[in-house]
Amino acid sequence: MTLTDTTLGELRELAGRYPQSRSALLPMLHLIQSTEGNVTNEGIEVCADILGISAAEVSGVATFYTMYKRRPMGEHHVGVCTNTLCAVMGGDLIFERLKGHLDVGNDETTEDGKVTLEHIECNAACDFAPVMMVNWEFFDNQTPDSAIEVVDKLRAGEPVQATRGATITSWREAERVLAGFEDGLADEGPAAAGPSLAGLEIAAERGWSAPSVDDAKKASAGDASEAAADSKTGAAEQADTSRAESETKVEESPADTAEEGKDD
After folding, report:
1. Backbone angles phi, psi at 159, to 5 degrees
2. For residues 188 and 166, is the Cβ–Cβ distance under 8 A?
3. Under a CB-based contact definition with an 8 Å cutoff, are residues 106 and 118 in contact?
4. Each residue of 16-29: pLDDT tens digit?
5. Domain boundary assignment for the chain
6. What is the pLDDT of residue 255?
7. What are phi and psi of 117, to 5 degrees?
8. pLDDT given for residue 133 in this prediction
9. Half-sphere exposure of 9 (CA within 13 A, CB side)
């Protein structure tokens, strides 16, 4: 077994954080990646044993989510968004330039083991397109040249600061954070900037503010009451209409007409 006693203890700790232990599977897989460099067969078996589920169930999760890797990763994971907006803004070109510069294809690692390159469907930062991520930290408004500068610094072991986020450590260290073990860097660097704050700035200029929780609850209750009243009124009106139509049909029925003829 390659997993250490420390790792096994931390896996059990994660399982104990949840009312239903199987809910810990996602962070447990991140922890496996932080120690092993990818999700290993041994890691799958250990997670299954701790959680009391089958290895097939664990494997199903590990192969469903693209953040879990079944092959060894490089020291750094570089993900370039190639979804629609980023692609149009230059993401496709950035990805092609990086592939050529690093001499790798998608989801491949450089010969020196420093960088694994991958195209990402969406980095959830469209207001900063085109976006690249290094170990899940944001690098905004990238160009082919700026992206190449970042990967060159990573390969040279030079300090690299994310546009919004912490100083870059390594993919394994980032995976440990995703597993739920803090690294003390959560408050390092800005978390929001530029376009993300435009709406807040406009609201401040115009004196807009969100309703208080109490006001929102009252408004919600009022809307519900109004909807209920409208529903009752509508139902009553529908009942009146249906009754009127029924009475009209009775008045015009052939039986009544026949009876009138006999009286004549």
Report:
1. -65, 135
2. yes
3. yes
4. 999 999 999 999 99
5. 5-64, 76-171+183-200, 221-263
6. 54
7. -105, 135
8. 96
9. 3
Class of domain 5-64: mainly alpha
Correct CATH for 76-171+183-200 of 3.40.30.10, 2.60.40.10, 3.90.110.10, 3.10.310.30:
3.40.30.10
Residue ranges of the chain with per-residue pLDDT less than 70: 1, 223-264
Residue tagged 């978390």 (tokens): 191
Lay out the sheet containing 76-81: strands in order across.
108-109, 115-120, 76-81, 132-134, 137-139
**What digits encode the pLDDT tens for the residues 200-243?**
899 999 999 888 888 878 887 776 666 666 666 666 666 666 66
**Residue 211 preceded by cis peptide, ω within 30:** no
DSSP state string for 58-78: HHHHHHHSTTS-SS---SEEE
**Token pair listed for 82:** 């190639």
Per-residue model confidence (pLDDT) at position 251: 58
pLDDT at 192: 78
What is the signed CA dihedral for 244, 250, 253, 258, rounded to 10 degrees? -140
In angstroms, rounded to a whole number, what is the distance separating the alpha carbons of residues 9 and 20? 18
What is the pLDDT, as a whole number, of residue 160?
96
* Cβ pair 189, 165 in contact under 8 A: yes
